[in-house]
């Protein structure tokens, strides 16, 4: 009786253990694909589930929400919680359309949009995304000049790459959705960085030359304008002076003329004598040629009839 | 009673064993070939449960998904005799398990065949085009050509080439330095040009400023001359108007004022009949 009971119990435990193989758990971002005799039948969402144990049913779990990332041209290194980046030159260096070499680092973010396709159509989804992105990115870089890649075309390259990679992955029926391609550091290779920097320096130098010249112009032109004002004012002053002199002199002339007209002869003589007095007072010797041609010495004091010294 | 249970159990066990031996499951990701003494008797490409004869049939399963094969980078000479290191990869899948097992047997062997064929096709196609064309966006159409050619070559092996793509197309290291040197030279020449342009602009600004200075001063000078002239003209007019009122007196007045400067401080010899002495000798 006891033996029988233990026998049943053992059988029950064996069956329970067997059935427990069919219990599985699906995480919040995951989906489980259930295969019955190897053929996909349905999907289940997050939670604890049960399916018939081997060999009847099996499951594959696919993470469909989590954003996955592949890095091209660089690697993120995490050590002691610190994140640093290392460039991988073999991947980063790319040929541009004008025969130059440029270092491009990019990250591609993707997730699974169709878990069934992803699980059953492709084997190595991670590598597939990586290889495709690398390939397309290089193609997109190769049709542009180095200057365009460095400057204005960055966004376009990332956008075009994402679109093209999506197109290719769709053609494989891979069930992968490319979220976005992010271009990270796009720079000239280390060996030529100095030369590229020199171009930037040259631009600064150019600005400096122009600024210095502008400074010179800003200095000399106002000074010249000032000088021009001075010249004009001087000329105006001269002109005014001439006019005023003329007015003064003529005024004086007219005043004297008025008096002169009252008694012309007397005034005339007076004026002459006064003049002689003032003029010859400082003259030492005056020689006058006579009609005979001999030189006579005139005594000024005698001439004007008075002592002026 | 006990014997009956044992008999049933034994029969059940035998049935289970037989079933496990004769049944096999083909997964969603797989396809299977059933071999009987090395001969293919059946192929299954759909998933599900299938049967075979136990002990006689052997089941070989193959991958049905797309496989990725990374081909080693190789040097390729382009039409214009330039060397390019091309790193390609091929995506392929087994589409005909029967043909595949007849010709390839294993995936490893298949990969080496794919390597030979794809690489040879890439070399053939790329060798017909110049370096610049391969680097340009025409590359895609070349790769399509390679894919088509390789697909045709591998059709008979039960393999379908899904895609052939170039991961890298780089210059060999001995050329890279030459490129760097050229890039440097190019940049330095651009820098020199920019600086020279800066100097040109600066010279222009300076020259313009100098010109403006000269013009401003010359204009001022010219204006000044005119102002002086106007002043002198006005003065002359004033004099003329005033003196005109009595020319006789003016003559006396002007002569007298002239003496101030003419006879100032020195020895002078005159003729007696000199006009300016007219008055002096008359007085005497």
Automatic annotation (TrEMBL), chain A:
Entry superkingdom: Bacteria
**What are the protein's UniProt keywords?**
Membrane, Transmembrane, Transmembrane helix
Does Transmembrane appear among the keywords? yes
User: Where is it chiefly localized?
Assistant: membrane
Q: Which GO terms describe its cellular component?
A: membrane
Per UniProt, subcellular location reads as: Membrane
Residues annotated as domain Band:
21-200
Q: Does the keyword DNA damage apply?
A: no
**A Pfam family recorded for this sequence:** Band_7
InterPro entries for the chain: Band7/mec-2_domain (IPR050710), Band_7 (IPR001107), Band_7/SPFH_dom_sf (IPR036013), HflK (IPR010201), Stomatin_HflK_fam (IPR001972)
Assembly with partners or alone = HflC and HflK may interact to form a multimeric complex.
Role this protein plays: HflC and HflK could encode or regulate a protease.
Family membership, please give it: Belongs to the band 7/mec-2 family. HflK subfamily.
Protein's name in the database: Protein HflK
Organism in which the protein naturally occurs = Thermosipho africanus (strain TCF52B)
Organism phylogeny = Bacteria, Thermotogati, Thermotogota, Thermotogae, Thermotogales
């Amino acid at each position: 009786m006891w033996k029988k009971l233990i026998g049943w119990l053992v059988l029950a435990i064996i069956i329970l253990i067997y059935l427990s193989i069919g219990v599985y758990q699906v995480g919040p971002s995951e989906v489980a694909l259930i295969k019955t005799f190897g053929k996909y039948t349905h999907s289940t969402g997050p939670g604890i589930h049960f399916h018939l144990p081997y060999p009847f049913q099996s499951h594959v779990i696919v993470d469909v929400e989590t954003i996955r990332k592949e890095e091209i041209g660089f690697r993120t290194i995490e050590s002691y919680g610190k994140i640093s980046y290392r460039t991988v030159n073999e991947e980063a260096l790319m040929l541009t359309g004008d025969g130059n070499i440029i270092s491009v680092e990019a990250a591609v973010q993707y997730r699974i949009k169709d878990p069934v396709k992803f699980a059953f159509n492709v084997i190595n989804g991670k590598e597939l995304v990586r290889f495709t992105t690398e390939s397309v990115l290089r193609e997109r870089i190769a049709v542009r000049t180095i200057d365009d890649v460095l400057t204005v075309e960055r966004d376009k390259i990332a956008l075009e790459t994402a679109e093209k990679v999506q197109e290719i992955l769709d053609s494989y029926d891979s069930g992968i959705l490319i979220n976005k391609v992010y271009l990270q550091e796009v720079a000239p290779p280390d060996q030529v960085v100095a030369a590229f920097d020199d171009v930037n320096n040259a631009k600064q130098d150019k600005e400096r030359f122009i600024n210095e010249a502008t400074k010179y112009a800003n200095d000399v032109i106002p000074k010249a304008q000032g000088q021009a004002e001075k010249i004009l004012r001087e000329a105006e002053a001269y002109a005014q002076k001439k006019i005023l002199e003329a007015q003064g002199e003529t005024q004086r002339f007219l005043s004297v003329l008025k008096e002169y007209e009252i008694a012309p002869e007397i005034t005339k003589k007076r004026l002459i004598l006064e003049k002689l007095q003032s003029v010859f007072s400082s003259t030492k010797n005056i020689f006058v040629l006579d009609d005979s041609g001999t030189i006579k010495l005139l005594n000024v004091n005698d001439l004007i009839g008075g002592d002026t010294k | 009673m006990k014997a009956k249970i044992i008999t049933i159990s034994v029969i059940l066990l035998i049935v289970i064993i037989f079933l496990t031996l004769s049944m096999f499951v083909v997964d969603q990701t797989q396809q299977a070939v059933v071999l009987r003494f090395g001969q293919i008797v059946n192929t299954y490409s759909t998933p599900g449960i299938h049967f075979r004869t136990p002990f006689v049939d052997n089941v070989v399963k193959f991958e049905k998904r797309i496989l990725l094969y990374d081909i080693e980078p190789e040097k390729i000479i382009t039409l214009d005799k330039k060397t390019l290191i091309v790193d390609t990869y091929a995506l392929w899948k087994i589409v005909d398990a029967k043909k595949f097992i007849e010709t390839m047997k294993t995936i490893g062997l298949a990969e080496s065949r794919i390597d030979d064929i794809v690489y040879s096709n890439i070399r053939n196609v790329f060798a017909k085009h110049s370096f610049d064309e391969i680097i340009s966006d025409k590359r895609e159409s070349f790769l399509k050509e390679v894919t088509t050619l390789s697909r045709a070559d591998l059709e008979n092996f039960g393999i379908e080439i899904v895609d052939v793509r170039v991961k890298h197309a780089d210059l060999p290291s001995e050329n890279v330095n030459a490129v760097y040197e050229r890039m440097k030279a190019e940049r330095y020449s651009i820098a020199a040009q920019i600086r020279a342009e800066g100097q040109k602009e600066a010279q222009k600004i300076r020259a313009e400023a100098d010109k403006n200075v000269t013009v401003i001063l010359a204009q001022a000078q010219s204006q000044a001359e005119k102002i002086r002239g106007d002043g002198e003209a006005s003065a002359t007019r004033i004099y003329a108007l005033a003196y005109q009122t009595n020319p006789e007196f003016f003559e006396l007045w002007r002569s007298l004022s002239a003496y101030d400067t003419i006879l100032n401080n020195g020895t002078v010899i005159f003729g007696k009949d000199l006009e300016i002495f007219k008055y002096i000798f008359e007085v005497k």
